[in-house]
Amino acid sequence: MKTLSFLLVSLTLLLNACDNGGGANKDEGLEAEVVENPMHIETAEGLIIDISEMGKGEKPNVGDKVQVHYTGSLKSNGEVFDSSRGTGKPYGFILGKGRVIKGWDIGIELINVGTKATLTIPANLAYGSRAMGPIPANSDLVFEVELVSRQTPPKKVEKTVFDTTGLQKQTTNSGLTYYIIDPGNDKKVEVGSSVLVHYSGFFLDGGKKFDSSFDRGQPIEVKVGTGQVIEGWDEALALMHEGTKAKFIIPSYLAYKEQGRDGVIPPNANLVFDMQLMKVK
């Protein structure tokens, strides 16, 4: 019997080669018709779902990460070609994004977490006219599945303070990237200057805010170029004038490097800072 690794290839990597293209979505007719009872579902596309045990959890939504145990077989002769059950580890994927065969995207969206069901998938919702390992061309497939869990992706993160739409992107030799929103006045920051600066800090990956003097209503005082702050800040402040507003994207090697900071900043984190230089003393 083939191992789970086969499905990881066959379900996730080869969908673009199928005759019927990418994942399911509601605009393509994902309307299920309940025939006689809710334990038997037939979709307009020809997928049949027979539920043996109804789960008590919620149905997943497109974009959720789901975990599914499965055993796949050929409808023609019942030959099993793949199963997750031997490994004890369910297969995870993002629902409705074309990362599995279309029959899976459609079927898994229609069952509750905890449900055990049989998906009878016509060839046009599987691999179509292409053979795939032990699966002959134009094969209808049968999957015994159990929807183990669903995980909804986090909500979109809050917007940063400063909008850089239409602004020129600039990059220093060190790799610091920045956008000037407001250049400020002629009073330039020098090495050794004491400055008052407002800021909000965000992770470049995901955009989550981790700190903000704006939220506290109190700017911080920094003596520029003396190592009181991360290297990226010292370099950023030296580019500013009194009144400057700017967005700085600071690579990890100019921030907290591989050490991170106090459980707040993970190792090797690239950071974004929206900064407003309030005063040069």
Structure description:
The chain is mainly beta. It has helices spanning 4-12, 102-109, 213-216, 231-238; strands spanning 32-34, 40-43, 48-53, 65-74, 80-83, 91-94, 116-121, 141-151, 170-171, 177-182, 194-203, 209-212, 220-223, 245-250, 271-280. It has 2 domains: 4-151, Chitinase A, domain 3 (Roll), CATH 3.10.50; 170-280, Chitinase A, domain 3. The protein has 4 helices and 15 strands. The strands form 2 sheets. Strands 1, 2, 3, 4, 5, 6, 7 and 8 form an 8-stranded antiparallel β-sheet that branches. Residues 1-35 have low confidence and may be disordered.
How are the SSEs ordered, and which strands pair?
Blueprint lengths: L3 H9 L19 E3 L5 E4 L4 E6 L11 E10 L5 E4 L7 E4 L7 H8 L6 E6 L19 E11 L18 E2 L5 E6 L11 E10 L5 E4 H4 L3 E4 L7 H8 L6 E6 L20 E10 L1
| The CATH architecture of the largest domain | Roll
Topology as a string of helices (H) and strands (E): HEEEEEEHEEEEEEHEHEE
Number of helices: 4
Largest sheet: 8 strands, antiparallel
Rounded mean pLDDT score: 87
Shape: elongated
Strand percentage, roughly?
Answer: 25-35%
Describe this protein with a few key phrases.
281 residues; mainly beta; Chitinase A, domain 3; 2 domains; 8-stranded antiparallel β-sheet; 7-stranded antiparallel β-sheet; 4 helices; 15 strands; disordered N terminus
What is shown here, in short?
The chain has 281 residues and is mainly β. It is 10% helix and 32% strand.
